[in-house]
């Protein structure tokens, strides 16, 4: 019996799939575009063309105000009127962590000081979240079934081909 000759391994994968499904250029993620978050729980709305895209509203899809990398987002053709949303203050400075000076503290100050500062930041961010949600929900409720569309979880079933889907 002759020994088997090993064939050189060729990649049978689709090069588009190797680069990643759903990685769209920033030109497709323009103002007012509806988005599906691939790794997050639900989709959202892309309100501002910014180096750090954000998904909203929290009350519908549970995605808070935060930065989401464009690699984890699929652009859709759904548009939402967000003219009532003031998104000017949501930039990299808003989402950046505050650099703190390290100080030596005694036991009593160690736990109490950090809690008070974090509570103030959380209250301010919750106020911003409520303001954004109020404006977005008004425009989302005007369009029938848009609330259910944004709240739906993205999934593929057997026989569904991602490249043939139209969002």
Automatic annotation (TrEMBL):
InterPro entries: 60S_ribosomal_eL6, Ribosomal_eL6_CS, Ribosomal_eL6_KOW, Ribosomal_uL6_N, Translation_prot_SH3-like_sf. One of its GO terms (cellular component) is cytosolic large ribosomal subunit. Transmembrane segments: none annotated. One of its GO terms (biological process) is ribosomal large subunit assembly. PROSITE patterns: RIBOSOMAL_L6E. It comes from the Eukaryota. The keyword rRNA processing does not apply. Residues 3-51 form the Large ribosomal subunit protein uL6 N-terminal domain. Residues 1-25 are annotated as: Disordered. It holds the Pfam family Ribosomal_L6e. Residues 1-10 have a biased composition (Basic residues). The keyword Thylakoid does not apply. Keywords: Ribonucleoprotein, Ribosomal protein. One of its GO terms (molecular function) is RNA binding. Belongs to the eukaryotic ribosomal protein eL6 family. This is 60S ribosomal protein L6. It comes from Dillenia turbinata. The lineage of its organism: Eukaryota, Viridiplantae, Streptophyta, Embryophyta, Tracheophyta.
